[in-house]
């Protein structure tokens, strides 16, 4: 099945006060009153205990947030808003939700991938430990849910839940293939990416559509951009010196991950098991990445990946024309498309 038909099919988816226990031994009155005060206090008050616990819980989150990336999702939201014209209060809220969710997901991703680096610095779990980082990410998910309460429509909560489920199901398939060394088909991979990567794009755009008077459907374009983003990221992981400096040399190879170029190479030459065996080893031994890259070049998988990105970009441009409908408000999206093809 061709990429155009795959994506068109995918994009159509569119607390009571505590009392003394009766019959129990009576505690010291002053000690009990002190405990009672702790139990019934306002848990969102700005006392020292709450402030300190918030700093500790948010430590890994704010560590990663301070080492910010390129803010592609923020640019994407601004670009779509040329059409959707979401009131600023809701627009800023959507940006905060997406930023929180994206940062939290990276904290978990780095643990699941055992990545030592993120954006050129030690990953959060390397600095704070795995347990504290997991807790910080979980805490952040609830912060995003709390921010969502500013959107009064029940549909906002439905959108949030649907796309968070999609994101985790996509990540689950990615981990399943990696851990069991099962090479998916390109169609299976696109389905996974449409959940894992496009899900956060879709969450933002669907919330924006909810707060906009515009009636056009922008989800197909968001899906396509998400797939382009992920395939480009797969390519750069194996070909970009800048990426290697920030994440490690060919870390998709050392993690045993089935990225788009790797999937193509394995299916293009099924009799050669070298690349598949290297992925199974999840090795960072010297020379392993060179052997893997030789396999990818032998099957022209990098050239193929670039062609697919160009084809998807052309499809995205067609979708831009469709939703713009002659209004001339496509400059922001064109800038994003240009960024995704570099």
From TrEMBL:
UniProt-listed SUPFAM superfamilies: Terpenoid synthases
GO molecular function: metal ion binding; prenyltransferase activity
One Pfam family of this chain: polyprenyl_synt
Any one GO BP annotation for this protein: alcohol biosynthetic process
Family note: Belongs to the FPP/GGPP synthase family.
PANTHER family: GERANYLGERANYL PYROPHOSPHATE SYNTHASE
Protein name: Terpenoid synthase
